[in-house]
Design brief:
The chain is α/β, with parallel strands linked by helices. It has seven helices and 13 strands. Helix 1 packs across helix 2 and helix 5 runs antiparallel to helix 7. It binds inosinic acid (IMP) and magnesium ion (MG).
Amino acid sequence: MIRVRFTQQEIARRVRELGEEISKDYQGKTLTVVALLNGALPFAADLIRNISVPVYLDTFAASSYVDDSSCGKLNVRSSLKNSVEGKDVLLVDDILDTGFSLAATVEHFRKMNPSGIRTCVFLDKILRTPKPVKADYTGFPVENAYVVGYGLDSRELYRNLPFIGIMEKEEKENQIIDRSTKMIHVVAEMEIRKDCMKKILALVKELVPLVRAEKGCIQYEPNFAVDDEGHEKYFFFVETWESEEALKNHLASPHMAKWREDVKELRLTSRVKVLSPAGI
Ligand code: IMP
Ligand code: MG
């Protein structure tokens, strides 16, 4: 199943902003945009039409691999049409995951003596491990899930989807769940102060990708519940953790410490229940 994560409209709006930012930064210059094949094709096509400075367009196909001596060697599958020597290069890719591909590609391009290299990725996966490269321009940060659409593939399919979705099935398959230990279900309930729901939502939006990226998090679903008059008054997290250990680490994480501090003023009560399956 594919769950929509960024709609076509959200993508278009963000690409427009990126184009404006890039145009401003390169005012008076000519930019060489290099789309990293195949994933960056739709994004690069949209991006260049939102850039107002003169643009040379090129493409580059390579993939990175890891051997014993170094991380992220480059397997180059195509050459550029035009030389980038003395040019201002903008490398465009679909997503920054571990960052090894982009780091290796930047190194490869440096050897061609451009006058400058910057990088632009549409998505940047939130990982707990540091990345060897930081993109100069980023569309959206995204939780550590498998995403498809808008150039991103799963076994070469789905690149043509006009939106970006999370591949629910792949995500679950890729996740190594140790079933020898018991999964833990948790429900956390908060009663929210009047007129504070908007603030809670903003905090939840920040928190959820970080929690979902934690090791051993199987589900972390935020929900509203209304009071008897139909007002949104309660907030629930429905959670599943791979093990007691995973839940313990979650509760001790720095983002949960920050969250507890942040919501103090916004909630009236809070209860956390660790469930024991009735085994029926
Ligand atoms: P990295 O070297 O780990 O940063 O990998 C980057 C490349 O892996 C991207 O250019 C994508 O082609 C691919 N990739 C990483 N994550 C995803 C994903 O969630 N969906 C589809 N492709 C991905
Ligand atoms: Mg790619």
